[in-house]
Amino acid sequence: HQHEGPRRVKRAWVIPPISVSENHKRIPHLLVQIKSDKQQPGGVIYSIKGPGVDEEPLGIFSIDKFSGKVFLNAMLDREENDRFRLKAFALDLGGTTLEDPTDLEIIVVDQNDNRPLFRQDVFTGHVVEGAEPGTCVMTADATDADDPDTDNAVLRYSILEQGNAGMFSINATTGEICTARPGLDRETVGVYNLTVQAADMSGDGLTTTATAVIYLEDINDNPPEFTKEEFSMEVEEQVTGVDVGKVFVHDKDLAGSPNWLAKFTILEGDPEGAFAIRTDPYTNDGVLSVAKPLDHEVRDRFELTVSVQNEQGLEPGAPPSPRALATVRVRVKDVNEPPVFRENPRRVSLLEGAPPGTPVTTFTATDPDTRQLQTLTYALLYDPAGWLQLDPHSGTISTKRELLHPSAYLQGGWYIALVLARDDAEPPLSATGTLSIEILEVNDHPPTLQPTAGVVCGRPGRGGNLLLGATDEDRPPHGAPIHFQLSPQHPQLARNWSITRFNGEGLDGVGGLMDGGGSLLTPCPRCSRSDPRGAGRAAPPHPRVPPTALVGLGAARARGRRRALRKGLLQSSRDDMRDNILNYDEQGGGEEDQLFSPRAKPPLRRDAPLSSATPPAPRKLPSSPSDIEDFINEGLEVADSDPSVPPYDTALIYDYEGSGSVASPLSSIVSSLTDEDQDYDYLSEWGPRFRRLADLYG
User: Fold this and answer.
1) Distance, CA of 98 to chain centre
2) In a domain, 141, yes or no
3) Would you say 698 and 680 are in contact if contact means Cβ atoms under 8 Å apart?
4) Where residue 239 sits, what CATH number does that domain have?
5) Gap between the Cα atoms of 643 and 367, Å rounded
6) How far apart are CA 62 and CA 65, in angstroms?
7) Would you call 278 helix, strand, or coil by DSSP?
8) Is position 668 within any domain?
9) What is the predicted pLDDT for the residue at 511?
10) Are residues 299 and 326 in the same domain?
């Protein structure tokens, strides 16, 4: 290929930008006339297209298609469209394009038709009181819709109004507001309202205004102060937790803030802490109240020194308060108070069985109202057993009936009564006192033996036993434990008798018994005996004791029985054996004695005269234990008065068991039986006191 030389470029038709001022009011307005370089004899047809012609906004621009003149048909607003870019066309009459389309740019020239606008109508800022000059608070800025490249949008700021003090200034270019002078005091002026202005054209054009509100923040530069130096109030005695009154204070700092909130302290006049003071959170006043009951009779007035200060500490350099202290005078009002039992409960002791009219105690109360003339009276409020009587004026209490023990009204040996004390005020007041009376135990019940009478039987060579028990209605120390002993008045008993403890409730053996009070009971039966020392001698008299003593007999050895058999005084039959009487309170008699039984029938005696060949009929057995002594004494008299009896050194027939008896000699009660069993069913007929013995051996 051959290199082609440079070709001539066809120059397109060019239309320079067209400027038109916004807000042009002469409509239509010729903007420009365009022409094509290819003018045809028949003419050229011109047209334009683009925004403002056939695109939104429609109809702003138009063109004369034959002359090429472009017209403005409406006012322009640069703030809406600052320029329009159109296309211009040139056609022949047949509609053929003569030239390529060219650009037509219409520039809208700005006019100062927009005022500055602040971003908000009211600007708000905060600064602490006492701030140093130059402390910036906030910025009040504005905007301008005009062309920012022209003076139409160049703004300047100023403060039109802020009061006479001139405490603030504004940066003319930025609109920043700062403090201008010292001495900002919230308590003097708490809020500043400034009128600020913005002007375009560098301050010479259009203007607008806004409000700047500046709040001064509080600091604790003012101490609280009492509104006066002295306060007076009064309160009734004997109350707690009630408010007495208020002390009033004033603080210039911001209400509700820690700089304003007061704190009160009682410095003097209340060493016992009878009062308390707190702060009313709504009014900031001090509320004085009673912490401990007051007694008008002890102290009827108080003079308190109270101080006040803030919860928050004062700022350095803040002046002290001239009224940080106040005097509070409190008068204690006298009111009627109830009586008081100083010793409550009152505990006294009284012997049981105390007769009616026995003084118990004087149980009185005191009236705290010493400055009022009042009289106290007394009454029994609670006396469940009706044992007491009370003098209504003196308060002296005595017995009305005998105090019985035991009683359902006693609690652990104590009798409880309530005493009412009442004054004569209007209305009257009363108090209740508790009287606790300890009923002391008295040794007024002797111990009771069970059984009160008994029989001791034994076989030759072995002793007999009797199980004793006793009860005492007295309580300790005059009741249990019960001590058994042989009578110390008859020491000879210890030769043939012994008494030992069987268990915790009774003793195995016989003898007297002694309770804690020292009552002594000793058994002392009276009966005949055999005396080996001589014949025809009567037994010496025996000491007598109360018949309530238990009669106990021990089994003796069988030596006396063998001696009698050798003399032939008894029949040879084993069943015809006769008994001797045991006199257990005389020394040496036990070894000569045989078994004792009140049930025997008398046999025929070989040594008796013919006139007494037939012995009297057997006597009837006793029906109760209390008849045993009489039964024994009667048998003793029969034996002593019988003229046909042999001398006393021989066996004396007391009674006879009968011939052919099935009974064998008795073994010890507490030991196992030998030979044949003995029938003791008759013990159950002797009453309840022999029931235990009947259960053991019956």
Assistant:
1) 113
2) yes
3) yes
4) 2.60.40.60
5) 92
6) 9
7) strand
8) no
9) 46
10) yes
